[in-house]
Design brief:
Elements (H helix, E strand, L loop, with lengths): L2 H5 L17 H11 L4 E3 L2 H11 L8 E2 L2 H10 L19 H9 L5 E5 L5 E6 L2 E4 L2 H9 L7 H9 L3 E9 L15 H11 L5 E6 L6 H11 L4 E9 L8 H15 L5 E3 L2 E3 L6 H13 L4 E4 L14 H4 L6 H4 L2 E4 L4 E3 L4 E3 L11 E3 L2 H9 L11 H9 L16 H8 L2 H4 L19 H30 L8 H27 L13 H17 L19 H4 L15
Parallel strand pairs: 1-3, 7-8, 7-11, 8-9, 8-10, 11-12
Antiparallel strand pairs: 2-6, 3-4, 4-6, 5-6, 13-14, 13-15
Protein backbone atom coordinates (compact mmCIF):
# COMPACT_ATOMS: atom_id res chain seq x y z
CA UNK A 1 0.00 0.00 0.00
CA UNK A 2 1.63 3.24 -1.14
CA UNK A 3 0.81 6.93 -1.02
CA UNK A 4 -0.67 6.83 -4.53
CA UNK A 5 -3.23 4.34 -3.23
CA UNK A 6 -4.17 6.65 -0.36
CA UNK A 7 -4.81 9.52 -2.76
CA UNK A 8 -7.70 7.49 -4.19
CA UNK A 9 -9.31 6.97 -0.80
CA UNK A 10 -11.76 9.29 1.00
CA UNK A 11 -9.33 9.43 3.95
CA UNK A 12 -5.60 9.93 4.50
CA UNK A 13 -3.36 8.74 7.38
CA UNK A 14 -2.54 11.37 9.97
CA UNK A 15 0.42 13.39 8.75
CA UNK A 16 -0.04 11.92 5.26
CA UNK A 17 1.96 8.74 5.82
CA UNK A 18 0.97 5.35 7.20
CA UNK A 19 4.00 4.12 9.12
CA UNK A 20 5.17 0.53 8.59
CA UNK A 21 8.23 -0.41 10.63
CA UNK A 22 7.54 -4.15 10.73
CA UNK A 23 10.42 -6.24 9.39
CA UNK A 24 9.67 -9.49 7.58
CA UNK A 25 11.44 -12.32 5.78
CA UNK A 26 15.22 -12.35 5.38
CA UNK A 27 15.63 -8.77 6.60
CA UNK A 28 13.85 -9.63 9.82
CA UNK A 29 16.00 -12.74 10.38
CA UNK A 30 19.19 -10.76 9.86
CA UNK A 31 18.13 -7.92 12.16
CA UNK A 32 16.93 -10.37 14.82
CA UNK A 33 20.37 -12.02 14.86
CA UNK A 34 22.04 -8.60 15.02
CA UNK A 35 19.74 -7.46 17.84
CA UNK A 36 21.05 -10.26 20.04
CA UNK A 37 24.51 -8.68 19.84
CA UNK A 38 23.26 -5.23 20.91
CA UNK A 39 22.83 -3.90 24.46
CA UNK A 40 19.44 -5.07 25.74
CA UNK A 41 16.83 -3.10 27.68
CA UNK A 42 14.01 -5.11 29.22
CA UNK A 43 10.53 -3.74 28.66
CA UNK A 44 7.13 -4.57 30.16
CA UNK A 45 3.92 -5.54 28.36
CA UNK A 46 2.68 -1.96 28.12
CA UNK A 47 5.86 -0.92 26.31
CA UNK A 48 5.63 -3.93 23.99
CA UNK A 49 2.07 -2.94 23.05
CA UNK A 50 3.10 0.68 22.39
CA UNK A 51 6.04 -0.44 20.25
CA UNK A 52 3.74 -2.60 18.13
CA UNK A 53 1.24 0.26 17.75
CA UNK A 54 3.99 2.56 16.48
CA UNK A 55 5.48 -0.01 14.10
CA UNK A 56 2.14 -1.02 12.54
CA UNK A 57 1.05 2.57 11.87
CA UNK A 58 -1.62 2.90 14.56
CA UNK A 59 0.19 5.99 15.88
CA UNK A 60 1.26 7.44 12.50
CA UNK A 61 3.13 9.64 11.73
CA UNK A 62 5.29 8.69 14.73
CA UNK A 63 8.04 6.25 13.78
CA UNK A 64 9.42 5.78 17.26
CA UNK A 65 9.70 7.34 20.70
CA UNK A 66 9.76 11.14 20.73
CA UNK A 67 12.83 13.31 21.08
CA UNK A 68 12.84 16.03 23.74
CA UNK A 69 11.64 18.80 21.42
CA UNK A 70 8.58 16.88 20.21
CA UNK A 71 7.96 15.42 23.67
CA UNK A 72 7.75 18.83 25.36
CA UNK A 73 5.79 20.38 22.51
CA UNK A 74 3.18 17.64 22.72
CA UNK A 75 3.09 17.78 26.50
CA UNK A 76 2.51 21.53 26.65
CA UNK A 77 0.71 22.31 23.36
CA UNK A 78 -0.87 19.04 22.22
CA UNK A 79 1.09 19.28 18.95
CA UNK A 80 4.33 18.00 17.49
CA UNK A 81 7.05 20.59 16.98
CA UNK A 82 6.00 20.92 13.32
CA UNK A 83 2.48 21.95 14.42
CA UNK A 84 0.72 18.67 13.63
CA UNK A 85 -1.94 17.80 16.21
CA UNK A 86 -0.76 15.06 18.58
CA UNK A 87 -2.23 15.00 22.10
CA UNK A 88 -0.21 12.43 24.07
CA UNK A 89 3.61 12.15 24.28
CA UNK A 90 5.22 8.86 23.25
CA UNK A 91 8.14 8.51 25.63
CA UNK A 92 10.40 5.69 26.71
CA UNK A 93 12.08 6.03 30.12
CA UNK A 94 13.22 2.56 31.25
CA UNK A 95 13.05 1.70 34.94
CA UNK A 96 15.12 -0.79 36.92
CA UNK A 97 18.76 -0.91 38.00
CA UNK A 98 20.00 -3.06 35.11
CA UNK A 99 18.19 -0.90 32.55
CA UNK A 100 19.54 2.22 34.23
CA UNK A 101 23.10 0.95 33.75
CA UNK A 102 22.45 0.32 30.05
CA UNK A 103 20.92 3.78 29.57
CA UNK A 104 23.95 5.43 31.21
CA UNK A 105 26.23 3.60 28.78
CA UNK A 106 24.40 4.75 25.64
CA UNK A 107 25.15 7.68 23.34
CA UNK A 108 23.26 9.34 20.50
CA UNK A 109 23.66 7.21 17.38
CA UNK A 110 23.76 3.92 19.30
CA UNK A 111 21.26 1.15 18.82
CA UNK A 112 19.69 -0.91 21.58
CA UNK A 113 17.53 -4.04 21.52
CA UNK A 114 14.26 -4.00 23.45
CA UNK A 115 13.36 -7.40 24.89
CA UNK A 116 10.20 -8.68 26.58
CA UNK A 117 9.87 -11.02 29.54
CA UNK A 118 11.13 -13.95 27.42
CA UNK A 119 14.40 -12.01 27.07
CA UNK A 120 14.02 -12.28 23.30
CA UNK A 121 14.35 -9.04 21.26
CA UNK A 122 11.09 -7.42 20.22
CA UNK A 123 12.45 -4.31 18.50
CA UNK A 124 15.52 -2.23 17.80
CA UNK A 125 15.63 1.41 18.90
CA UNK A 126 18.08 3.77 17.20
CA UNK A 127 18.87 6.49 19.70
CA UNK A 128 18.56 10.06 18.46
CA UNK A 129 18.06 11.76 21.81
CA UNK A 130 18.57 11.18 25.54
CA UNK A 131 16.95 13.62 27.94
CA UNK A 132 15.97 14.00 31.59
CA UNK A 133 12.44 12.88 32.35
CA UNK A 134 10.42 15.01 34.77
CA UNK A 135 7.58 12.89 36.18
CA UNK A 136 5.76 15.75 37.89
CA UNK A 137 5.84 17.90 34.75
CA UNK A 138 4.42 15.05 32.67
CA UNK A 139 1.63 14.36 35.17
CA UNK A 140 0.55 17.99 35.58
CA UNK A 141 0.45 18.74 31.84
CA UNK A 142 -0.97 15.43 30.61
CA UNK A 143 -3.49 14.70 33.36
CA UNK A 144 -4.01 18.10 34.96
CA UNK A 145 -3.10 16.64 38.37
CA UNK A 146 -0.21 15.09 40.27
CA UNK A 147 -2.55 13.12 42.53
CA UNK A 148 -1.22 9.56 42.82
CA UNK A 149 -4.82 8.31 43.16
CA UNK A 150 -5.19 9.07 39.45
CA UNK A 151 -4.19 5.80 37.74
CA UNK A 152 -2.34 7.58 34.94
CA UNK A 153 -0.29 9.62 37.40
CA UNK A 154 0.41 6.53 39.46
CA UNK A 155 1.63 4.70 36.35
CA UNK A 156 4.19 7.45 35.65
CA UNK A 157 5.76 7.06 39.07
CA UNK A 158 5.62 3.26 38.95
CA UNK A 159 6.77 2.64 35.39
CA UNK A 160 9.01 5.53 34.36
CA UNK A 161 12.70 6.12 35.01
CA UNK A 162 14.67 9.36 35.13
CA UNK A 163 15.94 9.48 31.53
CA UNK A 164 14.06 9.05 28.27
CA UNK A 165 15.38 7.64 25.00
CA UNK A 166 14.09 9.02 21.71
CA UNK A 167 14.45 7.60 18.23
CA UNK A 168 12.91 5.42 15.49
CA UNK A 169 11.92 1.79 16.03
CA UNK A 170 11.90 -1.33 13.91
CA UNK A 171 9.70 -4.23 15.01
CA UNK A 172 11.28 -7.67 14.91
CA UNK A 173 8.57 -9.78 16.47
CA UNK A 174 4.81 -9.36 16.74
CA UNK A 175 3.21 -10.62 19.93
CA UNK A 176 0.54 -13.28 19.50
CA UNK A 177 -2.84 -11.90 20.60
CA UNK A 178 -4.20 -15.16 21.97
CA UNK A 179 -7.99 -15.43 21.48
CA UNK A 180 -7.93 -12.07 19.68
CA UNK A 181 -5.46 -13.12 17.01
CA UNK A 182 -8.24 -14.30 14.69
CA UNK A 183 -9.88 -10.85 14.98
CA UNK A 184 -6.69 -8.80 14.64
CA UNK A 185 -6.86 -6.03 12.05
CA UNK A 186 -3.94 -3.65 11.57
CA UNK A 187 -4.31 -0.32 9.73
CA UNK A 188 -3.02 -1.79 6.46
CA UNK A 189 -5.82 -4.38 6.71
CA UNK A 190 -8.68 -1.97 7.39
CA UNK A 191 -7.75 0.44 4.59
CA UNK A 192 -7.86 -2.46 2.14
CA UNK A 193 -11.06 -3.87 3.66
CA UNK A 194 -12.95 -0.56 3.67
CA UNK A 195 -11.99 0.91 0.34
CA UNK A 196 -10.90 -1.98 -1.89
CA UNK A 197 -13.00 -4.94 -0.80
CA UNK A 198 -16.18 -3.33 0.53
CA UNK A 199 -16.00 -0.17 -1.60
CA UNK A 200 -17.02 2.08 1.31
CA UNK A 201 -17.01 5.83 0.79
CA UNK A 202 -17.14 6.49 4.52
CA UNK A 203 -16.42 4.59 7.73
CA UNK A 204 -17.05 5.49 11.37
CA UNK A 205 -14.76 4.39 14.18
CA UNK A 206 -15.79 3.66 17.76
CA UNK A 207 -13.27 2.87 20.49
CA UNK A 208 -14.58 1.64 23.82
CA UNK A 209 -13.02 0.62 27.09
CA UNK A 210 -13.58 -1.58 30.08
CA UNK A 211 -17.33 -2.17 30.02
CA UNK A 212 -19.47 -4.58 27.99
CA UNK A 213 -21.48 -3.44 24.99
CA UNK A 214 -24.68 -1.72 26.13
CA UNK A 215 -27.55 -0.07 24.29
CA UNK A 216 -26.11 3.41 24.70
CA UNK A 217 -23.26 2.22 22.50
CA UNK A 218 -25.76 0.61 20.15
CA UNK A 219 -27.72 3.88 19.86
CA UNK A 220 -24.56 5.69 18.75
CA UNK A 221 -23.55 2.95 16.33
CA UNK A 222 -26.91 2.71 14.60
CA UNK A 223 -27.36 6.45 14.34
CA UNK A 224 -24.02 6.53 12.52
CA UNK A 225 -24.96 3.64 10.24
CA UNK A 226 -27.98 5.60 9.01
CA UNK A 227 -25.63 7.83 7.01
CA UNK A 228 -22.16 6.25 7.04
CA UNK A 229 -21.27 3.18 4.98
CA UNK A 230 -19.30 1.17 7.54
CA UNK A 231 -18.64 0.89 11.26
CA UNK A 232 -15.35 -0.17 12.88
CA UNK A 233 -15.82 -1.22 16.51
CA UNK A 234 -12.62 -1.43 18.54
CA UNK A 235 -12.90 -2.54 22.17
CA UNK A 236 -9.65 -1.89 24.02
CA UNK A 237 -8.03 -5.12 25.14
CA UNK A 238 -5.10 -6.33 27.23
CA UNK A 239 -4.32 -3.68 29.83
CA UNK A 240 -7.24 -3.41 32.23
CA UNK A 241 -7.70 -3.06 35.97
CA UNK A 242 -8.77 -6.19 37.81
CA UNK A 243 -12.22 -4.78 38.58
CA UNK A 244 -13.08 -4.41 34.88
CA UNK A 245 -14.82 -7.00 32.76
CA UNK A 246 -12.13 -9.31 31.42
CA UNK A 247 -11.41 -8.37 27.84
CA UNK A 248 -11.98 -11.86 26.40
CA UNK A 249 -15.55 -11.80 27.64
CA UNK A 250 -16.14 -8.23 26.48
CA UNK A 251 -15.11 -9.23 22.97
CA UNK A 252 -17.38 -12.27 23.09
CA UNK A 253 -20.26 -10.09 24.30
CA UNK A 254 -19.67 -7.74 21.39
CA UNK A 255 -19.61 -10.64 18.94
CA UNK A 256 -22.87 -12.04 20.29
CA UNK A 257 -24.72 -8.73 19.93
CA UNK A 258 -23.26 -7.92 16.51
CA UNK A 259 -24.23 -11.33 15.16
CA UNK A 260 -27.83 -10.81 16.30
CA UNK A 261 -28.61 -7.11 15.88
CA UNK A 262 -26.15 -5.46 13.46
CA UNK A 263 -25.94 -5.47 9.64
CA UNK A 264 -23.45 -8.21 8.85
CA UNK A 265 -21.48 -6.58 6.04
CA UNK A 266 -21.27 -3.09 7.51
CA UNK A 267 -20.22 -3.62 11.15
CA UNK A 268 -16.63 -4.75 11.63
CA UNK A 269 -15.23 -5.84 14.99
CA UNK A 270 -11.51 -5.67 15.71
CA UNK A 271 -9.77 -5.48 19.10
CA UNK A 272 -7.48 -2.54 19.72
CA UNK A 273 -4.52 -3.73 21.75
CA UNK A 274 -3.54 -0.54 23.49
CA UNK A 275 -2.34 0.71 26.85
CA UNK A 276 -4.75 2.65 29.02
CA UNK A 277 -3.48 6.19 29.45
CA UNK A 278 -6.36 7.54 31.56
CA UNK A 279 -5.82 10.97 29.99
CA UNK A 280 -9.46 11.95 29.69
CA UNK A 281 -10.08 14.53 26.94
CA UNK A 282 -6.55 14.26 25.54
CA UNK A 283 -7.05 10.54 25.12
CA UNK A 284 -10.30 11.20 23.25
CA UNK A 285 -8.30 13.18 20.67
CA UNK A 286 -5.73 10.38 20.49
CA UNK A 287 -8.47 7.84 19.84
CA UNK A 288 -9.87 10.01 17.04
CA UNK A 289 -6.45 10.06 15.36
CA UNK A 290 -6.09 6.31 15.81
CA UNK A 291 -9.46 5.84 14.07
CA UNK A 292 -8.16 8.09 11.27
CA UNK A 293 -5.06 5.92 10.91
CA UNK A 294 -7.31 2.87 10.59
CA UNK A 295 -8.98 4.60 7.65
CA UNK A 296 -12.10 5.96 9.34
CA UNK A 297 -13.61 9.17 7.98
CA UNK A 298 -15.67 9.74 11.14
CA UNK A 299 -14.94 9.36 14.86
CA UNK A 300 -17.83 8.63 17.22
CA UNK A 301 -17.23 10.15 20.66
CA UNK A 302 -19.65 9.62 23.53
CA UNK A 303 -20.05 11.49 26.78
CA UNK A 304 -17.09 11.15 29.17
CA UNK A 305 -14.99 9.30 26.58
CA UNK A 306 -11.83 7.98 28.27
CA UNK A 307 -12.85 9.70 31.51
CA UNK A 308 -11.64 8.57 34.90
CA UNK A 309 -13.53 9.18 38.13
CA UNK A 310 -14.28 12.85 38.80
CA UNK A 311 -11.00 14.20 37.44
CA UNK A 312 -12.59 15.57 34.28
CA UNK A 313 -15.88 17.20 33.39
CA UNK A 314 -18.32 14.70 31.88
CA UNK A 315 -18.28 16.56 28.58
CA UNK A 316 -14.58 17.53 28.55
CA UNK A 317 -14.06 14.92 25.83
CA UNK A 318 -16.44 17.00 23.69
CA UNK A 319 -15.21 20.52 24.43
CA UNK A 320 -11.55 19.67 23.75
CA UNK A 321 -12.38 19.32 20.06
CA UNK A 322 -13.21 23.04 20.03
CA UNK A 323 -9.44 23.59 20.19
CA UNK A 324 -8.88 22.08 16.75
CA UNK A 325 -10.33 22.62 13.29
CA UNK A 326 -11.73 19.67 11.38
CA UNK A 327 -9.18 20.36 8.63
CA UNK A 328 -6.19 19.89 10.94
CA UNK A 329 -7.69 16.84 12.62
CA UNK A 330 -8.58 15.36 9.24
CA UNK A 331 -11.52 13.36 10.57
CA UNK A 332 -15.19 14.24 11.10
CA UNK A 333 -15.87 14.21 14.86
CA UNK A 334 -19.39 13.14 15.82
CA UNK A 335 -20.21 13.96 19.45
CA UNK A 336 -23.02 12.17 21.26
CA UNK A 337 -24.78 13.18 24.47
CA UNK A 338 -25.51 10.76 27.29
CA UNK A 339 -27.95 8.08 26.18
CA UNK A 340 -30.76 6.80 28.42
CA UNK A 341 -33.93 4.78 28.03
CA UNK A 342 -37.10 6.87 28.32
CA UNK A 343 -40.11 4.86 29.49
CA UNK A 344 -42.57 7.42 28.14
CA UNK A 345 -40.89 7.69 24.73
CA UNK A 346 -40.47 3.90 24.82
CA UNK A 347 -37.07 4.30 23.21
CA UNK A 348 -33.44 5.21 23.71
CA UNK A 349 -32.92 8.96 23.75
CA UNK A 350 -30.70 11.84 24.85
CA UNK A 351 -31.47 15.26 26.31
CA UNK A 352 -31.34 16.48 22.71
CA UNK A 353 -34.37 14.41 21.75
CA UNK A 354 -36.40 13.75 24.92
CA UNK A 355 -38.30 16.18 27.17
CA UNK A 356 -39.25 13.80 29.98
CA UNK A 357 -37.96 13.90 33.55
CA UNK A 358 -35.59 11.61 35.45
CA UNK A 359 -38.59 9.83 36.96
CA UNK A 360 -39.24 8.23 33.56
CA UNK A 361 -35.64 7.31 32.76
CA UNK A 362 -33.42 4.29 33.13
CA UNK A 363 -29.93 5.74 32.86
CA UNK A 364 -27.12 3.91 31.12
CA UNK A 365 -23.82 3.81 32.97
CA UNK A 366 -21.16 1.31 31.97
CA UNK A 367 -19.77 1.31 35.50
CA UNK A 368 -23.18 0.66 37.08
CA UNK A 369 -23.93 -2.06 34.55
CA UNK A 370 -20.65 -3.71 35.47
CA UNK A 371 -21.50 -3.53 39.17
CA UNK A 372 -24.95 -5.07 38.61
CA UNK A 373 -23.25 -7.94 36.81
CA UNK A 374 -20.84 -8.27 39.72
CA UNK A 375 -23.85 -8.72 42.00
CA UNK A 376 -25.08 -11.50 39.71
CA UNK A 377 -27.99 -9.50 38.25
CA UNK A 378 -28.69 -9.04 34.55
CA UNK A 379 -29.50 -5.34 34.01
CA UNK A 380 -32.81 -4.41 32.33
CA UNK A 381 -33.05 -5.38 28.66
CA UNK A 382 -33.83 -1.74 27.92
CA UNK A 383 -30.20 -0.76 28.62
CA UNK A 384 -28.21 -3.97 27.96
CA UNK A 385 -28.96 -6.73 25.51
CA UNK A 386 -29.15 -10.08 27.36
CA UNK A 387 -26.74 -11.51 24.78
CA UNK A 388 -24.13 -9.05 26.04
CA UNK A 389 -24.90 -9.18 29.77
CA UNK A 390 -24.98 -12.96 30.12
CA UNK A 391 -21.51 -13.41 28.66
CA UNK A 392 -20.02 -10.32 30.29
CA UNK A 393 -21.15 -11.55 33.71
CA UNK A 394 -18.80 -14.50 33.32
CA UNK A 395 -15.87 -12.12 32.90
CA UNK A 396 -16.46 -9.91 35.94
CA UNK A 397 -13.53 -10.18 38.28
CA UNK A 398 -14.04 -10.23 42.08
CA UNK A 399 -13.77 -6.83 43.69
CA UNK A 400 -13.79 -8.29 47.17
CA UNK A 401 -16.63 -10.01 49.01
CA UNK A 402 -18.28 -9.42 52.36
CA UNK A 403 -19.22 -11.89 55.10
CA UNK A 404 -22.23 -13.02 53.03
CA UNK A 405 -20.02 -13.70 50.02
CA UNK A 406 -21.65 -10.79 48.20
CA UNK A 407 -19.64 -8.38 46.07
CA UNK A 408 -18.75 -5.15 47.84
CA UNK A 409 -19.79 -2.15 45.77
CA UNK A 410 -21.77 1.05 46.34
CA UNK A 411 -25.30 -0.25 45.77
CA UNK A 412 -26.82 3.15 46.50
CA UNK A 413 -24.69 4.74 43.79
CA UNK A 414 -25.85 2.13 41.27
CA UNK A 415 -29.51 2.74 42.09
CA UNK A 416 -29.22 6.54 42.14
CA UNK A 417 -27.32 6.52 38.84
CA UNK A 418 -29.40 4.00 36.91
CA UNK A 419 -32.85 4.06 38.51
CA UNK A 420 -33.31 7.69 39.65
CA UNK A 421 -37.06 7.19 40.20
CA UNK A 422 -36.44 4.71 43.03
CA UNK A 423 -35.22 7.26 45.57
CA UNK A 424 -38.25 9.51 45.13
CA UNK A 425 -41.08 7.15 44.18
CA UNK A 426 -42.46 3.87 45.45
CA UNK A 427 -42.45 2.38 41.96
CA UNK A 428 -42.35 3.31 38.28
CA UNK A 429 -45.08 5.87 37.77
CA UNK A 430 -46.08 5.53 41.41
CA UNK A 431 -46.61 8.11 44.14
CA UNK A 432 -43.78 10.01 45.77
CA UNK A 433 -42.35 8.57 48.94
CA UNK A 434 -43.23 10.38 52.16
CA UNK A 435 -39.52 10.64 52.86
CA UNK A 436 -37.07 10.23 49.95
CA UNK A 437 -34.46 7.49 50.34
CA UNK A 438 -30.77 8.30 50.55
CA UNK A 439 -28.18 6.24 48.64
CA UNK A 440 -26.33 5.45 51.86
CA UNK A 441 -29.25 3.47 53.32
CA UNK A 442 -29.81 1.27 50.26
CA UNK A 443 -28.72 -2.35 50.03
CA UNK A 444 -28.87 -5.21 47.59
CA UNK A 445 -32.56 -5.83 48.34
CA UNK A 446 -33.29 -2.31 47.08
CA UNK A 447 -31.34 -3.08 43.93
CA UNK A 448 -33.37 -6.25 43.46
CA UNK A 449 -36.62 -4.32 44.00
CA UNK A 450 -35.67 -1.66 41.43
CA UNK A 451 -34.61 -4.30 38.90
CA UNK A 452 -37.81 -6.32 39.37
CA UNK A 453 -39.96 -3.19 39.06
CA UNK A 454 -38.29 -2.36 35.75
CA UNK A 455 -38.49 -5.93 34.46
CA UNK A 456 -42.22 -6.13 35.22
CA UNK A 457 -43.30 -2.59 34.40
CA UNK A 458 -40.89 -0.82 32.04
CA UNK A 459 -42.87 -1.77 28.95
CA UNK A 460 -46.19 -0.96 30.64
CA UNK A 461 -45.66 2.80 30.77
CA UNK A 462 -45.90 3.45 27.05
CA UNK A 463 -48.15 0.43 26.48
CA UNK A 464 -50.80 1.66 28.92
CA UNK A 465 -50.60 5.19 27.56
CA UNK A 466 -51.23 3.73 24.12
CA UNK A 467 -54.17 1.70 25.41
CA UNK A 468 -55.78 4.86 26.73
CA UNK A 469 -55.34 6.62 23.41
CA UNK A 470 -56.59 3.65 21.40
CA UNK A 471 -59.64 3.17 23.64
CA UNK A 472 -60.82 6.62 22.60
CA UNK A 473 -59.20 6.94 19.19
CA UNK A 474 -60.11 3.70 17.37
CA UNK A 475 -62.94 4.44 14.97
CA UNK A 476 -62.82 0.82 13.89
CA UNK A 477 -64.28 -0.45 17.15
CA UNK A 478 -63.65 -4.07 16.18
CA UNK A 479 -60.09 -3.42 17.37
CA UNK A 480 -61.31 -2.78 20.91
CA UNK A 481 -62.05 -5.85 23.07
CA UNK A 482 -65.71 -6.42 23.83
CA UNK A 483 -64.99 -6.90 27.51
CA UNK A 484 -63.77 -3.33 27.80
CA UNK A 485 -66.99 -1.92 26.35
CA UNK A 486 -69.06 -4.31 28.47
CA UNK A 487 -67.24 -3.17 31.60
CA UNK A 488 -67.92 0.46 30.80
CA UNK A 489 -71.57 -0.34 30.07
CA UNK A 490 -71.80 -2.08 33.42
CA UNK A 491 -70.22 0.77 35.34
CA UNK A 492 -72.47 3.35 33.74
CA UNK A 493 -75.59 1.23 34.28
CA UNK A 494 -74.70 0.64 37.91
CA UNK A 495 -73.94 4.29 38.53
CA UNK A 496 -77.22 5.36 36.93
CA UNK A 497 -78.97 2.96 39.34
CA UNK A 498 -77.18 4.67 42.24
CA UNK A 499 -78.32 8.08 40.98
CA UNK A 500 -81.95 6.98 40.59
CA UNK A 501 -82.09 5.79 44.18
CA UNK A 502 -80.41 8.94 45.46
CA UNK A 503 -82.87 11.13 43.53
CA UNK A 504 -85.71 9.37 45.37
CA UNK A 505 -83.84 9.82 48.62
CA UNK A 506 -83.47 13.56 48.02
CA UNK A 507 -87.21 13.91 47.35
CA UNK A 508 -88.06 12.19 50.63
CA UNK A 509 -85.33 13.70 52.80
CA UNK A 510 -86.54 16.16 55.48
CA UNK A 511 -85.20 19.71 55.58
CA UNK A 512 -83.79 18.87 58.98
CA UNK A 513 -82.98 15.37 60.22
CA UNK A 514 -84.38 14.30 63.59
CA UNK A 515 -81.13 12.45 64.34
CA UNK A 516 -78.03 13.55 62.39
CA UNK A 517 -76.24 10.29 63.19
CA UNK A 518 -79.04 8.06 61.83
CA UNK A 519 -80.78 10.18 59.17
CA UNK A 520 -79.72 12.65 56.49
CA UNK A 521 -81.26 16.03 55.88
CA UNK A 522 -82.07 17.24 52.34
CA UNK A 523 -78.89 19.29 51.98
CA UNK A 524 -76.61 16.33 52.76
CA UNK A 525 -78.58 14.01 50.46
CA UNK A 526 -78.25 16.55 47.65
CA UNK A 527 -74.48 16.66 48.12
CA UNK A 528 -74.42 12.85 47.95
CA UNK A 529 -76.43 12.95 44.71
CA UNK A 530 -74.14 15.58 43.18
CA UNK A 531 -71.13 13.36 43.87
CA UNK A 532 -72.82 10.36 42.26
CA UNK A 533 -73.64 12.36 39.13
CA UNK A 534 -70.04 13.59 38.93
CA UNK A 535 -68.78 10.00 39.13
CA UNK A 536 -71.04 9.08 36.20
CA UNK A 537 -69.51 11.89 34.15
CA UNK A 538 -66.04 10.53 34.90
CA UNK A 539 -66.79 6.99 33.74
CA UNK A 540 -65.47 6.75 30.16
CA UNK A 541 -68.20 6.54 27.56
CA UNK A 542 -68.82 3.25 25.81
CA UNK A 543 -67.80 3.85 22.24
CA UNK A 544 -69.38 1.54 19.67
CA UNK A 545 -69.41 1.96 15.92
CA UNK A 546 -72.81 3.64 15.92
CA UNK A 547 -71.58 6.17 18.48
CA UNK A 548 -68.78 7.31 16.19
CA UNK A 549 -70.61 7.87 12.90
CA UNK A 550 -70.23 11.61 13.41
CA UNK A 551 -66.44 11.29 13.04
CA UNK A 552 -66.81 10.40 9.35
CA UNK A 553 -67.34 13.93 8.14
CA UNK A 554 -66.59 13.55 4.42
CA UNK A 555 -67.97 10.23 3.10
CA UNK A 556 -66.89 10.61 -0.55
CA UNK A 557 -66.98 7.53 -2.81
CA UNK A 558 -63.51 6.01 -3.12
CA UNK A 559 -63.19 6.99 -6.80
CA UNK A 560 -63.89 10.63 -5.89
CA UNK A 561 -61.49 10.46 -2.97
CA UNK A 562 -58.78 9.35 -5.39
CA UNK A 563 -59.34 12.50 -7.40
CA UNK A 564 -61.88 11.80 -10.14
CA UNK A 565 -64.67 14.35 -10.46
CA UNK A 566 -66.55 12.27 -13.04
CA UNK A 567 -69.21 9.66 -12.26
CA UNK A 568 -67.91 6.11 -12.14
CA UNK A 569 -69.68 5.13 -15.40
CA UNK A 570 -67.88 7.87 -17.41
CA UNK A 571 -64.54 6.64 -16.12
CA UNK A 572 -65.18 3.23 -17.60
CA UNK A 573 -65.84 1.76 -14.20
CA UNK A 574 -69.35 0.44 -13.97
CA UNK A 575 -70.48 -0.91 -10.63
CA UNK A 576 -71.92 -4.42 -10.84
Amino acid sequence: MNQTTFSNYPQQPHGGKLVNKVLTGKERDEELARAKQLPIIMVDLEAVITIEMIATGVLSPNEGFMNEIDYKSVLKKGRLDNGLVWPVPLSFAPIGERNKEIVQSLSIGDEVALADETKEPVAILKIEDIFAYNKEERASHLFGTTDRNHPGVDAIYRRMGDYALGGPLTLLRRAHWGPFEKLRLEPKDTWRLFYEEKKFRSAAGFITGANPLHRGHEYIHKNALEEIDGLLLQPLVEMAKREYTRHEFRMLAYRSVLETYYPKERAILAPLRVTYIFAGPREAVLHALIMKNYGCTHALIGRDHAGIGDYYDKYASHSIFDEFSQEELGIDIRLFHEVFYCLRCDSLATVQTCRHSDSLRINISGTNIREMLRHGILPPKEIVRPESARIAMQGIQPKGVDENNQAISPVGKIIKGTFPFYLERTRLGGPKRDVPLTPEELNKRDLEAAIMDVRLNADRVYSEVFEEFSSIGDTDRDLQPEWRMEARDSMRTQQKMVIEDLEEKVQQAPEKASDEFMYQDKEEAQRELAVARKILEEIPATLRAENLEYRTWNPLPYERYRGSDEPAEKNGSVKK
